[in-house]
Write a structure and sequence with these properties.
The structure is a single chain. The protein is elongated and about 55 Å long. It contains 4 helices and no strands. It starts with 44 loop residues before the first helix and ends with a helix. By secondary structure, the chain is mainly alpha-helical.
Length: 103
Amino acid sequence: SSGINAEWPLRPGVAFVDPRHFGRWTITDGWSGSEKRGPDIITEYEAFRDNVIGSLEKSVFDKSICEVMLDQRYFSSVGNYLRAEVLYRLDINPFARARDVLQ
């Protein structure tokens, strides 16, 4: 026996495991940090596209596309794995200047 008493079906839950005690978890009424995140690529595509195209003149787009794709103000929810996969599949040099790739 595993020693775990669980009723079937299992109920969904959230776990926060922090054995080194570096993190913290605060419950709020809304999505914390949403003012620092751009529109979602999947659910808000038009707003996402307008946000990126309308921001191309900003200095952040002088950086490499691989750096800019991790900036959540423009590419919300894109992480390292998705960034690498997208750039690879589109055969885009990850070190090309973001503005040149996106124009």
